Amino acid sequence: MNNCIVIIPTYNEIENIESIIRAVLSQHKPFHVVIIDDNSPDRTADKVVMLQEEYKGRLFLEKRAEKAGLGTAYVHGFKWALKNNYDFIFEMDADFSHNPNDLEKLYDACHFGDADLAIGSRYVTGVNVVNWPLSRVLMSYFASVYVRMITGMKIHDATAGFVCYKRIVLESINLDSIRFVGYAFQIEMKYRTYCKKLAISEVPIIFTDRTKGQSKMSNSIIIEAVFGVILLRLKKIFNSL
């Protein structure tokens, strides 16, 4: 059985879903893909079902009843991946902001390198972001600076959503205790990995903003991330993380 699974959460990604699936499954390394769809009104899941005929045994679909947040979608995917005995579990967006050609770089960092968690980092070698307005670049960059200050993690891109976990990372974390659902989820997963003293590595990538579909960013997600970091640090201090 293939040991690499790429988890792609979706909500109304009909414009991107076929292209991203084909791009991932055409890589030299035979990745598998599981789509976690939150009952998209645009019938994203129906397109996935059609493609499953073409990619039997490599493309899977988990359809949830309603939109329930990025974090819970990934936790659902993590549990599914562990249950199905994958050793390398990837997070990836459906909108091509993460380049499928970079998947193997993350895999190499975990399989051949020392990383337990490999992060596709926008900021480890400067600012490698395409098509974002300056305001959003600055917000994202300084969010990671803020996270480093509060948590002590030496990570340049704490909110990155393009990552590879070794199985041991997800097995060591109580997935049912994950609190956050937006970008704070990405910070929480990295911080829990850091607190377990597992090895984290950043792999430089170029991030390109979506050209199709709509961003899921909202003010509530930003607020959750700002205050969530403080809460995570306090929970660590009081040994309740």
From TrEMBL:
Coiled coil: none annotated. The keyword Amino-acid biosynthesis does not apply. One of its GO terms (cellular component) is membrane. GO terms for biological process: glycolipid biosynthetic process. Residues 6-171 form the Glycosyltransferase 2-like domain. Keywords: Glycosyltransferase, Transferase. GO terms for molecular function: dolichyl-phosphate beta-D-mannosyltransferase activity. It holds the Pfam family Glycos_transf_2. The keyword Transferase applies. InterPro entries: DPM1-like, Glyco_trans_2-like, Nucleotide-diphossugar_trans. Belongs to the glycosyltransferase 2 family. PANTHER family: DOLICHOL-PHOSPHATE MANNOSYLTRANSFERASE SUBUNIT 1. This is Dolichol-phosphate mannosyltransferase.
